[in-house]
Amino acid sequence: MDNIIDALREVRRSLVLTRLFNRFTNAVLIFLVFALILTIFKLSWKFALIPPIIYLLPGIYNAFIKTSYKDIEDIVPDLEWQLRTAADNAEKQDEVVKSLKNLVLKNVKNVRSSFFFDEKSLVYKLVAIGCLSFIIVLIGSFHVNFGDFKGIFPTGFANKLGKGAGGILGENFAGVFDGKNDRGIYGEESVVELGNEEINLQITPENSLFDPSSLNNIENYDFTQSGVLNEIGASPDQSYEDRIKKEEQELIRTYLNKLAEYSNKKKQ
Amino acid sequence: MEKVFTDVKEKFSDIFNQTSKVIVGQTDVLKQIVISILCDSNALLEGYPGLAKTLSVRTLAQLMDLKFSRIQGTPDLMPSDITGTYVLEEHDGKREFKFQPGPVFANIVLFDEVNRASPRTHSAILEAMQEKQVTVGNKTFKLDKPFFVLATMNPIEMEGTFSLSEAQADRFLFKIKTDYPSIEEELDIVNRYTELLKDPSMKPILTKDNIFKLQDIVRKVPVANDIKKMVVELVNKSRKSKELIEYGASPRASIGLILAAKANALLNGRNYVTKEDITEMAFPVLRHRIILNFEAERNNFKEDDVVRYLLK
Predict the structure, then answer these.
(1) Complex ipTM above 0.85?
(2) Is B227 near chain A, with CB under 8 Å?
(3) For chain B, which domains are there?
(4) pLDDT tens string B189-207
(5) Does A125 contact chain B (CB < 8 Å)?
(6) Which residues of A touch B272 (CB under 8 A)?
(7) pTM of the model as a whole
(8) Rounded to whole angstroms, what are the CA distances from B47 to A33, A131, B41, B51, B129?
């Protein structure tokens, strides 16, 4: 009895694992398709995780809970009704049921995991995954997009949408395919080409980055005038007043007035 | 045990080959009769006269080494004509009643044109079918085993007949339909029976013990729960399909269908029942257990059409 139950469980487990694997490869494909679309429209690749997760969850539930012996029998027609009958009558021990169990054990031995795989579709899926990954990397590195669609979202949400897969991939992969990556090793390309050779550079107005015509309403300054100020005034500071005694303040004031008069006379 | 199933298939293949020496075509009819015997049940056979009904059953009885008897249904047939009766016998100057067994004391009883017999006689044969015993006077006699009744009915000439009630018909596992042979088959029949003087001799292939063993195996053939559920749903559907059926099949139909499917699996050398067994057996099991309503009859639907509809 244990043998037949173990054998049946083993076959079912193979099918469950196969179904999970199929579901997972499909989920990867879905992710890549959405990632590609989001990259093209400069939206965050993280949103491409949502569809495969939605696809994956019922698949996992179905694989674990709903996988029945009938599913195995559908795939291996030689076992049709045998597995279900043997499973439903596992506890019976008469000679007819025993002969059925022996038959099932014999037939189950011939069942291989490859029976549950559709090799053709698996190859197609793997090729598609490879192609899509390559296309996404290319699009990211060349910054190919159909415009920034973040504008159609509210500002706050648009910030959450992030740089987009293209942006991230573009930063990471920039220069991988255009040769600019050499800069990191040799330094500035133009300098590398010059070597130690000296060059004379003359900056002409045409070559200058500054364009005088772009300036408007400029004030006219007379640069011939002296930089000496016409009037000089002084006023006592509060702190100063506080420190100087009252009887000395008059003396100092007189001194400063005299000094100012002297200065004015000298000017005249 | 696996070899047993292969052997059973070969044995019955032999039986059908042997019968084909005598009977042309009618493979399904013979198969269904064999299944009825393996299920330890009885069958109704509906067919036109001259379709080798008697010959089929007699040949099978020979091949299975079973005692065969035939009863012709007539309106004046009495129960004692079937069961037997006490006759006064004289031994050594002493007179005493001795039981003289009727034709029902056989293994295979062919009740020809059962619907011509009166309801009293019906009840006598039905008691024998159901209880495998007959009561005469105050004494009960056990019938020999295996016991199989094949009652035939003529679908034409219904005047002066007593149709079996639904309850009586329900006791038959199958209602087997025989049809006219094809042109080729009929040519073969003509050739055989206009040239040969006597039937080819038949040697028994199975014994009574073999049949008991096979009847035991049939009941042990395992059935998946899905199959059981399918059968119960099918029979239940016959009760609910009021658009075509006035009265559906009883739970006896569910039992009969599972049992017949088991026997069919055994005949095919399988130790498990498949959906095909159920589909194949649904027609003979259900066709006499459903009563079509006016709408179905107005549309000229036959019982088999409705069974086909139920199986969809």
Answers:
(1) no
(2) yes
(3) 15-217 (3.40.50.300), 221-312 (1.10.8.80)
(4) 888 878 766 667 778 888 8
(5) no
(6) 81-82, 85-86, 100
(7) 0.72
(8) 67, 69, 20, 7, 21
